[in-house]
Amino acid sequence: MKAYQLVEWARPPELRDVAVPEPGPGEVLLKVAGCGACHTDLHLMDRPMHVDPYERPPFTLGHESAGWVAALGTGVSGWQVGDAAAVYGAWGCGRCAPCRQGREMLCERIADVGSWGGGLGRDGGMAEYLLVPSARLLVPLGGLDPRDAAPLTDAALTPYHAIKSGLPLLGPDTWALVIGVGGLGHLAVQLLRAVSPAHVVAVDVEQARLELARRDGAEATVVAGASAAAEIHELTDGLGAMVVLDCVGSDQTMSLAAAAARAGGAVQVIGLGGGSLPLTVGVLPFDCSLTMPYWGSLGELAEVIELASAGAIHAHTERFALDEVAEAYARLRAGALQGRAVITPHG
After folding, report:
1. Dist CA 186 CA 329 (whole Å)
2. Structural domains of the chain sorted by starting position, each given as residue range(s) with its CATH number in brackets
3. Per-residue pLDDT, 50
């Protein structure tokens, strides 16, 4: 089969011929319907050296995967060949306290597991088939098309995890701010509209993305720039946004997030843009928290899929064939995508 693999650090990934894996006890072989292209993949491609002991090339990229069950290892029950499933991407030990709670993204025995998950040290979904190490990591999709559902496993799950922690702050007279309405941000806007009564304002550098945010339910949009924080304060009657989701994570966006936040609110940085925010007195309003939520739990992924099944959210996607994967990543790097690029190995 074909697989898009990171072969060495600081070397462009390659589309290679590799053997189709066979599922062992407890494992599931998935025929990949779709795999989302994420900025995290670009960070891996750009890494100059081996700095993480749990990410060791060669491995197939792609941690946003969904597809159809192709084969079952011995001992697997509850699944049939042909079932559509989303893959929970954080592969923990399954035994520590966070894993038993479904929060495998916080696994305490990652050293024993030896990787962060598929596409993050083990083979991921940018291939024709994906070997999932345990059936517990699959979530049924029901009637959802797995090609459209693939981004739900990260691009929707990550903002949903952040939004859930901020829900107690979001009343009907409050504002939530989404900074960056690309792959994560456009779903963050939809999720806020679906699960909270708050008003939503979106910020981006691209007018086309702001127009998409309005279609997705943002009541107001602001073009990123020197006046953005002042515009947000004016929009919110001088109070600021109660919950800020920074879906970029650069120096500029983190600074804007702090400047636009409301006293008693929360700033949540979910983008991995490599930025920093000098934390001194006065940088944040009083009683405003700053957190860096990571991915989400298995239970939260099931809730995200329920929202999508009900029509409350949907990922805007652009599909690429597996032999077009390099083009998809080039478009992502250039900021030339709206929504999420999804690789569809089987059309």
Report:
1. 19
2. 2-151+296-343 (3.90.180.10), 157-291 (3.40.50.720)
3. 65
